[in-house]
Structure prediction request, 196 residues.
Amino acid sequence: MDVKTIQELRRISGVGVMECKKALQATGGDLEQALKLLREQGMQVAAKKATRVANEGRIESYVHFNGKMGVLVEVNCETDFVARTENFIGFCRDLAVHIGAMMPEYVSSADVPAERLEEEKDILMKQLEGSGKPKDIIEKIVEGRLSKFYGETCLLDQVWFHDESLGTVSAVLNDLVGRIGENIVINRFSRFSIGS
Prediction:
């Protein structure tokens, strides 16, 4: 295992040298597979930490260069120390830009009001009326289209604006939790634009 590969994995993942070395050993030196393994481990760590209280954090802002659109986002973590780290601040800034570009309406699918969800289901059902498809097939199609709806309107379900290969905002968040070692929660956001 050469030092250059370990350093490259560390640069990409932000994980410590020993973790990078272990991941590369486990994957036979394959950088891509090692990165995937580290991400999976980060998601497992995130799931364990999700129950811990996050009452510190930061409010980040982003104003587009023309001054016609702006974002405020509140991201919470467990300690003030983490709230001041470069990784956490960088994530918050990138998240604010993502919100500005992708225009989510809700943080997660759990935040979608029941009325809005029913309205969306009704629209989808009406679109499929008269298709001649069996009811169970129509229900599966509606569920698939609802997933697309969540991917467009819910921040955590959106593909990460800065690098689609990283997956959803939720995956990027879980990766950060795994690297930082604290529970991190996107609490709320507001997006403002002139004329809307």
User: Anything to note?
Assistant: The CA atoms of residues 99 and 158 lie 10 Å apart. The first helix runs from residue 3 to 13. The two ends are 55 Å apart (CA to CA). The domain at 56-108+154-193 is CATH 3.30.479.20 (Tetrahydropterin Synthase; Chain A).
